[in-house]
Every structure is written in C-alpha cells, then in structure tokens.
Amino acid sequence: MLNSHSGVVRSDGSHIPISEYFGELTFGLGQMRERLPRDAYQDLVRSLDQGRKISKQTADAIAKVIMDWAVKRGATHFCHWFQPMTGLTAEKHDSFISIQHSNHSELKVIERFTGSQLIQGEPDASSFPSGGMRSTFEARGYTAWDPTSPLFIIEGPKGNNTLCIPTVFFGYHGQALDNKTPLLRSVQTLSTEACSFLKLLGDVDVKSVMATLGPEQEYFLVDKEVGSRRPDLLMSGRTLLGAPTARGQKLEDHYFGSIPPRVQAFMEDLEHELYRLGIPVKTRHNEVAPSQFEMAPIFENISIAADHNTLAMETMKRIAARHGFMCLLHEKPFAAINGSGKHCNWSIANDKGENLLDPGHTPHQNLRFLAVAAVVIRAVNKHAGMLAASIMSPGNDLRLGGNEAPPNIISVFLGSMLETIYDSIGKGEAARATEAQIIELGVSHIPDVAKDYTDRNRTSPFAFTGNKFEFRAVGATANVAVPSCVLNAAVTDAFTECTARLKTQIAKGVARDEAVMALIRELINENKGVLFSGNNYSAEWREEAKRRGLPIIGSAAEGLAVWNNEKATEFLVSTKTLTRDEIAARYHIHMERYVKTSEIELETTLQLVREYVIPAVEQQLARTYGVTKDAKLEALKTSMGHRLGALERTMTDLLQYSEGLHTSLGKLNELTEEPLKVDLLVKETKPLAAKLRRAADQAEQEVAHEFWSLPKYRELLFHPSMR
C-alpha cells in the first residue's frame, strides 16, 4: 500500500529510512537556526528565554523564511491553528497572495507573508465557547503564534497545501479562550517552582524543568460502508443501540494479535503521515476488544505532545477515510466490551535532560528521585477531586470503572519495590529495596532480564511505571492539554508547599539531606491514604476509599461540578494556570457541553427506535401473527403464541419508554439553567433512555435479520476484512 504514492520508496525500489523524511512537513526552531540571519535567530531565542515580545524586524525575517519554505512545498494558504474550548481544533485559511500595483495601473499578484500575519490573527471570539467571558457583541478574539511548537503543512487533496501556525487563542482582555494557554502557563510555573525545590536539594545550577508527556491513543476501526448506515455513529460517534455479540472479547484473542492486512495498510499510511509531521510514533498493536487498536508515541515536551496528539487524532480520521474506515475515538463506542482511553505517561526532567522520576547512579540522584516522586504523590492526594474532574466527560462516564478502564476514584499505584522503599522511610528505617532486580527465567537459551522498577496495575487510574506516572483515566477523545495543565498545576502547588517546608527545616539548622529525608517521611505518612496497589474495581476498595476520605465521583455530572468548587480549584489560581473567571467559564462550558452531547444522543436514540426498531418489530409481529393464526399443530400454535406474547411485551416497552423519553426531552427543553438540566438528565431522562435501549436490544434478538436494517455489532466488529 505504501510505495511511491507515499514517498517511502525511491525510484530504484529501495526504501527511504524514516529518519530521512521525519519532520519534512514541519518548520521549527532547528530550521530557523539554519535559515535565519544570525542576529534574527539570536533575538528570537532571547525573546523566548526572557518571555518578551519578538521585534517587528525579527518577526518579518522569520515570516520571510517560513513563507519561502512553505511555498516551495506547495503551500498556497496559511492559517492560525488553535484549540478552542469545543474539544476540536479551529483554523481560518488565508492565501499568501497580495496585490501589487504597477506604474501602468496593472495588477500583479505576488506571494507575501508578514511578521504581523505570522504573530497574530483575529478570529471571531463570540463564535466559540467562552462560558460567558465574551458576549456576541464583544467579538474580538486573538490568536498568537506559539514559537515553541513547530509550524506544519497539511497537504490538500488537490495539491494546494496549507501552512498551519500553532497559536493560542484569547479574548480582548487577555482571557484564555482555548485549552493551550493554561497548559503553557502551567509549564512555566511548574518550571519555576520545581527549580526552587531542586536548588534546596543541591541542584544549584538547575535553570529550568520540563514536563514531558507520551499519550497512548486507543481507537476503533469499522468499515465505513457499514458504519455509515448507523445514524448513531454519524451523530454521536458511538452506538446508542446494539445487542452484544455472542463472541465479544471472550476468547481474548485480539490483544497483540496479528494485525489484519487492511488495518496494517492504514497504520503504515498513518505512521508515514505522522512521521512527516514530526510526530514520533513508536508503537502500534491490536488492543483487547475486537476491531480496537492502539498507537503510542515517544514522549515529548508536554505542550508539543498535546499539539501532536490533537493533530494525530485529526490525521487518523483523514487517513481512515482514505482506507474505507471510520475511525472511532469515542470512549465507549460499543457496549459490553472495552472502551478507549488515552494513557498519559507524564514525567519531569531538568535542563540537563535528566528524568527526575528515574532513580540514578548516585545517592544524590536517588534522594532527588524519592523526593520528587513524593511531591507528585502529595499533589495527587491533595488535588484528587480536580484531577478526576479534569478527565470527566459524557463519553468517559460510560468507560470508567469497567472493562480494563480504571474507576473514577483517583489513587496512586507505586509497585512493590517503591512501595517497600517508602514504607521503610515512613517507619524511619533504612530505605532499601527487598527484591532482586534480575528476573531469572530458568530457560537456558534465554538470557536473564532486568526487572522494571514496578509492575503494572491496569485497574489503577494513576500508576508509577518505572520512570513516569501513567494517568490511565484520561478518555480517548480528550484534549490532553486539559488534564495535563491540571496535573502540572497540582504538582506545582505541591512543589511550592514542599519548598516552604524544607526551607523551614534547613533554617532550623537541620542538615540538607536529613531535612529532605524527613520531608519524604512526612509526605509519605501524610498522603499514604492515596496509595493503593490492589484491585481498584473491587467493592471493597470503594468502601476502603470512603473510609480514607478519598473523593468518590460517581458520574461526569458530579465531576464537572468540581469546576464550580472554589476551594477545590484555588490551586489553579495560585499557580496562575487559570483565573477565577476562566475557571467559571470552563465550568459553564463543560456543563453546557454535557447537556448538548446528552441531548444529541437522546434525540438520536428516540429517532432510531421510531424509524428503525418499532417498524422492524411491527413487521415481525405481522409475520408471527400470521404464522400463529395458520398453525395446524396445537403445540406449534402454543409456541408461536408464546413468541407473539414476547414480541408484544417488547413492543409495549418500546412504545412506553419512547413516549416517556419524548416527554422528558420536552421538559428538558423548557429548562433554561444548565444545573437543572443536568439534574433532570441524571435522575429521569437518561434512566428512561437506558430502559428504552434495553427494550430495543431485546427487539434486535427477537426480530428476523431481514427486518433489521441497522448493522449489528457482529457486522461492525467482525467485518471479514478486519480478520
């Protein structure tokens, strides 16, 4: 599938290594260093280091080299690419052309791109969600270039390509109207507070600290022709009706299985496109559920990783369509099998490139590792409620707590080695691991292997996995900038607190390393309630979590309400991640999105039942009634009578619950306040829809296949081309 069309094979038939075309559609600081005049590049670097504006002269110089590069690669347009609070990306395309008047009043078209066009744009802010921060008559909004994220080219279907400029999006008074601005703020304050803490530990020359992220992306692929005959997939991205198949994932034969050729062709095409966009995809494999797959990148700077994950999701959908697939990124496209998450592998590194969550080779590095990991544990315990709120959505509501998705009780899994070390420190004992770090396999021709620092716990929402923490509870559709900025802010707040505590001890004359060990001991003993290494699915853990006082958020509606809790969100303000107005805006936007998403799903469910299910049952009833009436044998008449009775009961349920759902939706439309709508949705409307679905799924199993026009789960999940 990948040949000269994709550019990975030379004309002589030899393959082109990934390293030769990786990032060929991107333009970042490296390319600027090569192409810019020395003075312009140095001014750009100083501007980035000092957080000041780029001069007009430098901006114009940058714009010129960018345009020259982009036009040579077929770009006819440019756009400011940003991430408004819609959960999607946005862009407005402008062409490079400009009109030049000659002496004879003739018009001449030239390519022109200025520094001001590069740095700033002005989309209509009132057309994007603002949570009340912007009114319709207050239309001004601005996009501003983020020089830390590479520019990239998206190729058009007819060869007219577009230069995309990653930007932030903000209102006239500086309010963050996007998901990226708070992330960039959190990165900056995290670096400042982490450096203050590390200097007390003895890293006096540390200049900056960087959070890194590697988001694993799960997704489903279904045949486009089959999937397009499901209105619920088209409207909501998930199946709102559908009886489980007999097979499902019972055989456990899909995970890490042989990748079907059609799917591998898609993956190869996708990876090629992502490599050209500078996205370092590392892993691809079959996931647990049928027709479910995963893609994982190498970790990057957290803000770039967030941009890349968003861009990757857009690219996945585009390439899937090219291969005749629908790419489903919803957290729960199908009932009774695994949903899709986005495991966010988060870590933190200093300006020397040392991973601060990786034990080192010296006593100081190990002490630093234990201290930083303890700070993260403190952050998660202190702000567990807000971390849970940051990943809640209507889709994730359906996924969390079952089929290998962690529950919505935020806890930390450390693994036996680190748990043993911290337990020893907490008791005031010597910090030693009790396990040998070599696994002896006992097979002569296979070498012994080094053991990781921790085992895996697939039920844990926040697990330490060797040199990083894996935030497993994030949903597949999420913009990772949102939970990432909350996590960054939580860790920043913990660093600030721990720096103050450490300074107090050192001021009392306690030796530095002793003070650090004392702090670690205090942190572990104070926050051990958030540590849990068992089965997070168990009822016993839920009861234990209650006893420990951990936040237990039962639904997305409860989670989103945390955004409206001033005490729970105070750390976002103190770390300068979000202002009070921006937090309030996000609460209203999340609530409104919850309501609108629910309304779309509920109205689509009602339409499916009325347009597809009830007519199918009517046809089956007519046939069954005729067979029953014409039956000669008494036993057959009795059996058919039973079947007719079951169908009539199912039809009664369908009519009753569809009418109830219709009435409830009417009541919902009469309400004007979002909290009241959410309350009605949770207590009445969604439970009615659940009953209606059960009746519809029962009907699917009772109605002849010839009458059932909606593609079933077996057609969607077990399409012959996916085997």
From TrEMBL:
GO terms for biological process: glutamine biosynthetic process. It comes from the Bacteria. PANTHER family: GLUTAMINE SYNTHETASE, TYPE-3 GLUTAMINE SYNTHETASE. GO terms for molecular function: glutamine synthetase activity. Gene3D superfamilies: 1.20.120.1560, Glutamine synthetase/guanido kinase, catalytic domain. Belongs to the glutamine synthetase family. PROSITE patterns: GLNA_ATP, GS_BETA_GRASP, GS_CATALYTIC. Residues 76-174 form the GS beta-grasp domain. It comes from Planctomyces bekefii. Pfam families: Gln-synt_C, Gln-synt_C-ter, GSIII_N. Residues 179-613 form the GS catalytic domain. This is Glutamine synthetase.
